[in-house]
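Researcher: Let's do a round of design. I'm pasting the structure tokens now; please hold your answer until I've finished.
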């Protein structure tokens, strides 16, 4: 089989490499020449465990090449970004451009598969009118469907193979053909359905997680006010066989949870009430963290320095997209009375990035644990304490042990923990 993958990002690149090492001929297409040139040399432009080794193997085998233009193929997979605009509407311009780009290359018997997470109706209402320009009979000569990715950044390669998959077709035969293609490497179950159901399922999965985290974040605020520890409350409540509350934190980031629920709100604004409120609740967390910082440092006169540990949207990756920590930094930036320094072992380019863990703590009034990178598990707290002006430690992830932090001479504060 020959497969043309449109978009060489977090999904398109691993998917291309996976098909290639399973014997398919893959052309990876990206509008960014740098990405294309790198891939043709066997190099990658994103960070994901083991992806470099796999891409190298795929390129060396001759099964994976990259280009800025599509090639003829048996199957076309669209894995381009579907971000949201400032007013929280889906920006479908990349999907439209990729669909238009493949039209001249489509032949009888081809498959076109959307992988990008998209609002329900995208394939039928947006893509089919474009694909019809090929002159092929949709559903009979051209098989079309949605096979949403479900992989977790940081575990992409394992999940790509082992996760169950939902495949929606514009008709049954399309779904079946697409399933047979993905069986090339998928070990999980593959469930077939309609294209619109598949689109909805994908968004619902991420919405479930976002709403659940919003509940945890609201509980964090409530527990601070009631005078208990939300982490203990959630841990104990989750001992119930039918309770599974997620973890609170400084907010929800990434290109999935912080984005996809808006696709539902956009379609049905009068109905999607809990979903919209949850998004807003999670988006309120950076401000809540700032309120806590204000409270912790209220007795310090003049400019206060906050040292932020971690800036990515979640631990052990280099991805800063929609990171709530960036939002927190923006909020602090707007305040005259705060100075900021940041240290993240995965991010080298941020304007406030310090040289190392000692540098970030220099003259600081507060260490803020913002992202629970494994790297921060063994912070040199004694050495950091020595260079600080005031020894305050604020854990927004319940990551470090309270006693250990206090033993190093810090005053310890925890998100979601109130004074009783
Ligand atoms: N977060 C919390 N509390 C939690 C769990 C996560 O605050 O209990 C925060 C994280 O810190 C992060 C954000 O949520 O800022 C999102 O992280 P994540 O690990 O939940 O998910 P993503 O965005 O990396 O990947 C999600 C996954 N979806 C689900 O688990 C339902 C993944 O399987 C999807 O493939 C991916 O979105 C996607 O591409 O849609």
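Researcher: That's everything. Go ahead.
Model: Designed sequence:
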């Amino acid at each position: 089989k020959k497969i043309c993958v449109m978009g060489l990002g977090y999904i398109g690149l691993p998917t291309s490499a996976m098909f290639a090492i399973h014997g398919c001929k893959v052309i990876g297409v990206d509008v960014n020449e740098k990405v294309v040139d790198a891939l043709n040399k066997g190099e990658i432009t994103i960070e994901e465990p083991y992806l470099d080794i796999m891409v190298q193997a795929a390129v060396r085998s001759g099964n994976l090449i990259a280009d800025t233009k599509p090639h003829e193929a048996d199957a076309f997979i669209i894995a381009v970004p579907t971000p949201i605009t400032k007013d929280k509407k889906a920006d479908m311009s990349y999907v439209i451009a990729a669909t238009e780009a493949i039209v001249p290359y489509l032949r009888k018997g081809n498959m076109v598969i959307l992988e990008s997470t998209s609002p329900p109706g995208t394939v039928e209402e947006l893509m089919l009118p474009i694909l019809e320009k090929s002159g092929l009979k949709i559903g009979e000569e051209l098989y079309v469907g949605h096979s949403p990715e479900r992989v977790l950044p940081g575990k992409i390669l394992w999940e790509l193979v082992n996760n169950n998959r939902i495949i929606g077709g514009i008709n049954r035969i399309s779904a079946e053909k697409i399933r047979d293609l993905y069986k090339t490497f998928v070990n999980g179950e593959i469930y077939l359905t309609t294209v619109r159901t598949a689109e909805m399922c994908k968004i619902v999965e991420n919405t479930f997680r976002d709403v659940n985290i919003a509940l945890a974040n609201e509980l964090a605020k409530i527990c601070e006010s009631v005078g208990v520890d939300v982490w203990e409350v959630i841990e104990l409540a989750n001992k119930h066989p039918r309770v599974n509350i997620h973890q609170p934190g400084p907010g929800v980031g990434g290109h999935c949870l912080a984005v996809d629920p808006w696709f539902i709100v956009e379609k049905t604004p009068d109905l999607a009430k809990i979903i919209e409120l949850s998004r807003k609740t999670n988006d309120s967390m950076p401000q809540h963290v700032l309120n806590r910082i204000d409270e912790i440092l209220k007795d310090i006169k003049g400019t206060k320095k906050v040292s932020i540990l971690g800036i990515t949207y979640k631990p052990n990756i280099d991805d800063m997209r929609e990171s709530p920590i960036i939002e927190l930094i923006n909020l602090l930036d707007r305040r005259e009375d705060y100075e900021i320094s940041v240290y993240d072992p995965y991010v080298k380019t941020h304007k406030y990035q310090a040289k190392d863990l000692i540098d970030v703590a220099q003259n600081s009034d507060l260490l803020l644990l913002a992202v629970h990178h494994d790297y921060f598990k063994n912070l040199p707290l004694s050495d950091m304490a020595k260079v600080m002006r005031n020894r305050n430690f604020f854990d927004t992830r319940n990551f470090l042990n309270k006693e250990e932090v206090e033993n190093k001479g810090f005053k310890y504060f925890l998100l979601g923990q109130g004074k009783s």
